[in-house]
Write a structure and sequence with these properties.
Layout: H1 2-15, E1 22-25, E2 28-32, E3 36-50, E4 53-63, E5 68-79, E6 83-93, E7 98-109, E8 112-122, E9 127-130, E10 134-137, E11 142-145, E12 147-151, E13 156-166, E14 170-180, E15 185-196, E16 200-210, E17 215-226, E18 230-240, E19 245-256, E20 261-271, E21 276-287, E22 295-312, E23 321-322, E24 325-326, H2 331-334, E25 335-353, E26 356-366, E27 371-375, E28 379-382, E29 385-388, E30 391-397, E31 400-415, E32 421-434, E33 437-451, E34 462-476, E35 479-485, E36 490-495, H3 540-549, E37 561-563
Antiparallel strand pairs: 1-3, 2-3, 3-4, 4-5, 5-6, 6-7, 7-8, 8-9, 8-10, 9-12, 10-11, 11-13, 12-13, 13-14, 14-15, 15-16, 16-17, 17-18, 18-19, 19-20, 20-21, 21-22, 22-25, 23-24, 25-26, 26-27, 26-28, 27-30, 28-29, 29-31, 30-31, 31-32, 32-33, 33-34, 34-35, 34-36, 36-37
Amino acid sequence: MGNGLCSLSAIAQDTTKTSLVYLEHSRTLSFDEKRLPDAQILRGDVCFRHDSVLMYCDSAYFFEKENSLHAFGRVHMVQGDSLEGFSDVLYYNGNTKLARMRRHVRLIHQETVLTTDSLNYNRAKNIAYYFSGGMIEDSLNTLTSRWGQYTPDNHQAIFRDEVKLVNPKFVLTADTLGYNTESYQSDLVGPTQILYEEETTILSTNGWYNTQTEKSLLLDRSQIIHADGMTLTGDTIYYDKLNGYGRTIGNIESTDSANQMTLYGQYSEVWEETNRAYVTDSAMLLDWSDSTMFTYMHADTLWTEEIPYQTYSLLPQDSVWVDSVLTALPPDTLWQDTAYQQLRAFHHVRIYREDMQAVCDSARYHGKDSLLTLFGLPICWNEDNQISADQIDIYIKDETVDYMHGTDNALAIKREGIDEFNQMAGKEMFAYVRDGDVYQVDVKGNAETVFYPRESDGSYIGVNRTQSSFVRLYLTDRKIDHVVFTTATTGVMIPLDQALPAEKTLGGFFWAIDERPLKPSDIFLHPERTKRPEKTITSATAEEEEDEEEEDSPKKNRRRRNTNQTNR
């Protein structure tokens, strides 16, 4: 019987085109003119051929005129040496080259297996798609969805509705996903979540993610969330998960929840292994550790990094002392590894906080000591007070400013009137803060002061200039309460109407109010830095001696009072 069928197929091949479906083999052939008048009924080891495709089954209806067939039972379709399909039922049209496979469907292409209950395979376009739920597995991932499409030629798949990709390291969920079974790259289309268990979550709506290399390019305001509280958001994010490297461009928000701060900018890079990151181009740090007031810092470039160090751990209660010396313990008992956050800011640094503002060229913050250090012509403001020095250290306690320490060319200025400024200068200066206000200022080394004492009616007495090795100023309600000097203090009181302009200020005096940021947005302004004058003025006592020698000078009749003071 089989030989006869093969002969019929050979005759058909001679008179028709090669695009016809050919019956290669069957154990039996019969007809049912009443029920299936146009069909050949085939049973037992049935085999069809169409072009390079072989189709096997237990039984079939062959519609030769229509160039189609219905195959049943253990359907096996083979195309070349790389594509196989299995199902319980097959409907195949040789004219359209459409194969409709139903029930227990498997399509195998090299290492990729597509499993579903209903699959349509268009041989003309070499596209297979399912529409009632399916799964694609390769050597690395398992993908499921309600609708899916697979193209063997380019190994490209498209999934829609309830998409889920399961990898040994992570789970990806999406509404729509493109996926290549050869490169293992996923194309993110629409809301997508990639979840690394208890470690990292990636959120995106556009981009690509390679499930093998774990490299990704995330677009359209994507987000990376770490379990340790680090969150990165940006317009474009390149992320190498395996190597812990990320690069972000456009409207960046990098939040450290543990340290309660957020970095903003337009370009950044991060190295997770060393916990280093920097941001530049409109870079800004927002510190929200103090819930009562935020700290804003701007610079050309901001760097953050985690600095490891060792500290003593608590000693066990059964530790013993011998001759006042602790007995030796294992290293892991005495020491514990920990780390602190360090922030570095470079160039055009501007800081705004409700109770303090500052400008400088660069800055560094040590989380271990809660110390903010300002370099490069630093200036700090608090209310009406201006403090400057070659370097200023700001110590933080309980998330607020505790005190400031200025070294070399330290100068403190408090505005009293339009042209009246109380001043203190010296080699070293300490300004102590309580409840957001300066309440005490200490000056050590070559201390000089200019004060404008007042009468009880508020009028100025004159200009009091002093020189000392140490000066301590106390303030109450933002006003001078009293001043303490060392015993070696010299000074002079000059009536206000007789004081020369140079006698009203200390050498090196400058008032940089135009540089001061008065609101958060002012940190992005870049006013010209105030020029600091050289100290050229001599002491008041020296000037007085010169005046006495010039008898014809109008200054000789000015009333002055020398003072040797300890307290005032």
